[in-house]
Fold:
Amino acid sequence: FANKKFHLNCTSGNLTVSFSENVQYHVTHVSVEDGTLTVSNMVDGNHAKERIEIQTDNGYVEETPWAVANLTCQAAKKEDTMYACRSSHSKCLNVTHGEIFMGYRCNCSSGFQGNPYVKDGCEGIAIGTGCGLGSILIALCVSIFINKWKNGIQKRIRRAHFKKNQGLLLEQLISDESATNKTKIFSLEELEKATNNFDATRVLGRGGHGTVYKGILSDQQVVAIKKSKIVEQTEIDQFINEVAILSQIIHRNVVKLFGCCLESEVPLLVYEFIANGTLHDLLHIDVTAKCLLSWDDRIRIAVEAAGALAYLHSAAAIPIFHRDVKSSNILLDSSFASKVSDFGASRSLSLDETHVVTIVQGTFGYLDPEYYHTGQLTEKSDVYSFGVILVELLTRKKPIFINDLGAKQNLSHYFVEGLQEGAIMEIMDPQVVKEANPEEVHDICSLAEACLRLKGRDRPTMKEADMRLQFMRTKRLRKCKILPASDEEIEPLLCIKVGNSDVVNDGNSTSKGISCCYSLEQELSSSVTLPR
Structure:
């Protein structure tokens, strides 16, 4: 200190300065760079940069800056041991107040900052900034490297999944398709975005083989995405089999496949979104929709499903046996048209094959007993399962249901016993009894009984079943004068046959003992108000 007034005292951890004999101030901050002290009154604790009056030879000086010693820089540098500017990057400043010389103090050289009064106390600003920027740059580079490393690992994992999931084989299988019917191989990233990372709120349904999610692609197309539970290679082969089969099929009553993804641990299927769920749900769960499932609806659904299965058996490029025909694999679109789905268990045959020996797969209640005992899969195995669906449509009972005694019963056996005992009308769904005439019920029951025969050779083919159903439907439509007897133009009408009991037509009025014919527009407009 250049003046005794600036003598700092360190007592009991407090740094103080006395500007007069009676008053001490607590030093709260020392600015080496500005050469100033910030002090607070030790009595009331108020902080301030105090006005300091120091008496010199020339009078009083207010707000005196401090100095290290009452020497010029030139004189101070000569006194090597006492020279205060110790840092190699420091400089000496002569301190004046107005025209009054106060002494010298030290400051860091331009481009440096810190404490000039200690060795190596002044550090380069550029170095510090450079170190800071360097650290940020290094951290950024490390972050980019880690992300690229993680992305590289993810790409390798996805590529490994793609190979494990027979992606190369699938690419070959679908490479010959036309551009308009090209099955797309989606990236996992696309489907994660489409399903909001497979959010639970997007789940449409869960089954034994996996979960189906509702997805919205980047072009705003709504799709259903099937995520399998499979992890075994044999099941992955089945999945690829389903993709290969669906990619060959173009039929209005078969669910349309858009593509698949093979980059995840379990493969994903992307197919058209079907708005109204499954036939199983409509028959057995959504009881409020009974009025929507008229007798004509049931015949139409049976005709559409039979036509799709007949196409698979005989009209496709390679004969295909579905092997898991059931009401939960028949979907209903926005207009309640049938769509056969889920070809994971299907098998395709070469043209010279009549059957194939496989591990028995299917669903109890629909499973062909001959296939179950022999393991020989033929087209008649699908026929048996279709027969069960016909009985479901007639009785609105599940394939395995609880009877009046509280015991489980097989629907096929129950139906055949009813036929043999002549009590078929007693086991029909009441709505069928109301809307269908006995001749129509007899025709459908006769076809269902033929499909359910124990020996496959005694059953009709799917083509024969399809033709019989189409004949029944055409006959019914002509009775309602919807179809012309000759080559007249067919009017777009839907027929609802009414029996001897009241039947709801439009949700408000009833008719008795008549046949009612509605235009397509009337049917659609009235169905808007009905529960789905």
